[in-house]
Amino acid sequence: GPSSVGMDFSLHGFDHVYGIPQHTEALLLKNTSDGDAYRLYNLDIFGHKIHDKIGIYGSVPLLLAHKPNRTSGIFWLNSSETLVDISTKAVAEHVASGSAAETAKQRAVPLTDVRWMSESGIIDVFLLMGPTAFDVFKQFAQLTGTQAMPPLFSLGYHQCRWNYEDEQDVKAVDAGFDEHDIPYDVIWLDIEHTDDKRYFTWDKKKFQNPRKMQEHLRKKKRKLVVIVDPHIKADPTYTLYSQAKDKGYFVKDRNGQDFEGICWPGSSCYLDFTNPEVRKWYADQFAFKTYKGSTNILFVWNDMNEPSVFKGAELTMQKDAVHYNNWEHREVHNLYGFYQQMATAEGLIRRSSGKERPFVLTRSFFAGSQRYGAVWTGDNTAEWGYLRISIPMLLTISMAGISFCGADVGGFIGDPEPELLVRWYQAGAYQPFFRGHSNMESKRREPWLFGEKNTQIIREAIRERYVLLPYLYTLFYRAHTAAEPVMRPLWVEFPGKIETFGVENEYMLGNALLVHPVTEQEAKAVSVLLPGSEEIWYDFRKFKRMEDPGTLKIPVTLENIPVFQRGGTVIPLKTRARKSTEWMIDISYELRVALDTEACATGELYLDDGHSFQYLHKKQFLYRKFTFRKNILSSSCTDESGQYHTTCVVERVIVLGFGQQPNLVTACPKDGKEKEVVFKYDTKTSALTLENLALNVDTDWKICI
């Protein structure tokens, strides 16, 4: 039955608090003293309202507090329904006077009180002392783990809808991308691909030869993702159901019978993923010989795993249902989806004998879900407000340790007007998980269905994503090894700049790119904050140095969104996009070098085979550092233990903010002879372009300017 635990924390000197996803809410947590508390309770809420503190699909009970000289965190480890009350006020603080004769002075300082209340469980709380945001991220990762290293294909573009009808439909959509010259990596199948909503099966009429369909995709160097939900159709002729029933693997009701609820298949039972034996058995279902028609290009999407129970109270499982070891459901509710994703990821690893990285997308999540794959923001709507709110939602999830996150491009519910769809593609291209998805009732919206002009703009947005992949993949390696979020709020990079603390309409992608999606209809200009009086910022596409930092009015057209590179950084790019990530392995690199006030810059490139665990077990990786100082760009090894080799070369270097036209540029490979370099200098933008370099990525070299 219900019990209750709670605790109050006073955060002295703090009035900016963040975190506790998932809510359709602003980045800065609001004062709740005159309204609802923030609720952490995983629920299937179709078309969740904007600016609502109700819990939706996932919960991470981590709250961050920030002031200019310190970041702290509170991790309240409890998986039952939790409410968080926040009260921020100014309190008087005495300032000691210099001498006894002077009267003591008072000053107003902020104070934030945070009250955690959970329905069940024990008080198990961790205070993360920072002092920087990056320290807090590392401390949280020591407790919950870092982001799993994703396979490279999963950072490409994903095409999904509820539902692609049959094998012919899949082939036609796949061909459409080639015909319109738009890169993509993965096509997805929702619940209608199964035999009457029995997961791990195929509809015999619509998907008669799933293996052949996958072979077709494999030849195109593409992948397939299928949905596998946690509810199991109550049908004695369905092997999965009868096996699980015989073994006692379902969650029980309070009377010890198998809990039955309604979901997509009708009457269903729910696997008890809190039981390690059930997780092991479930993982075994992904073996190629068991999951008929599956191949090694098939990956998995776990949906409805809050768990969703139609006709249940709040559309979820009743709290007095009973799990393994007699835990009531109320105790473990927010962990249910976490454990399904854990078992699924384990199954995909095991089917390859531990060799291949899994890809699993989950809707429901908890602290630590980053170890098993990706999450998305659920059933959003095709309206401008949902595009706008997706930015703070993704930033909040990212700060809670889950870097691999995204929102359904275009909005899941309804039909986006072409301008909204274009703007959403442009935003999604610069966010970690990039998937277009739509509801059964929505009109078809493959990227080429909105006229030639819009097709061209969406094509360009997706290509920009593919060219950026070396940088993104390197950021994911940093997330995996150092717990640095891929997508981060401005204040994390500029902790002393108070003007950044509430910014939620733009964000940093790594430490080098500032992205400002356009989220207003028919916008002609946007107001962009370029932080840091000592920083230099460059237009990422036009190469020109921006005026002084601060808030600038930037004109925009439908063609693209404002993206800026920070001075002092080097970004590795591919020189062009091709049909999918696998087609791009041998494409040469470009280094975009943006100089700071000292005319210096540094950056990194991480590289491995993109799909296996060899980077871990056999040191099959390459980790390079690029440094520009005193007019010399050098490439050196960051981690000498890396053994990976590539024939890829750095073909082009563009130096932004280079003072004057050089007389001579030479390249010196470590083991070769010096050669003269072809260059162009643009006096308008001060950009220096070096071409035809053919410098090996995996060796040391220098370019002297």
UniProtKB/TrEMBL annotation:
Gene3D superfamilies xref list: Glycosidases, glycosyl hydrolase (family 31), Golgi alpha-mannosidase II
Keywords: Glycosidase, Hydrolase
Domain Glycoside hydrolase family 31 TIM barrel: 148-475
GO annotation (BP), single: N-glycan processing
Cleavable signal peptide: none
SUPFAM superfamilies xref list: (Trans)glycosidases (SSF51445), Galactose mutarotase-like (SSF74650), Glycosyl hydrolase domain (SSF51011)
Keyword Nucleus recorded: no
Family: Belongs to the glycosyl hydrolase 31 family.
Protein name: Neutral alpha-glucosidase C
Species the sequence originates in: Pterocles gutturalis
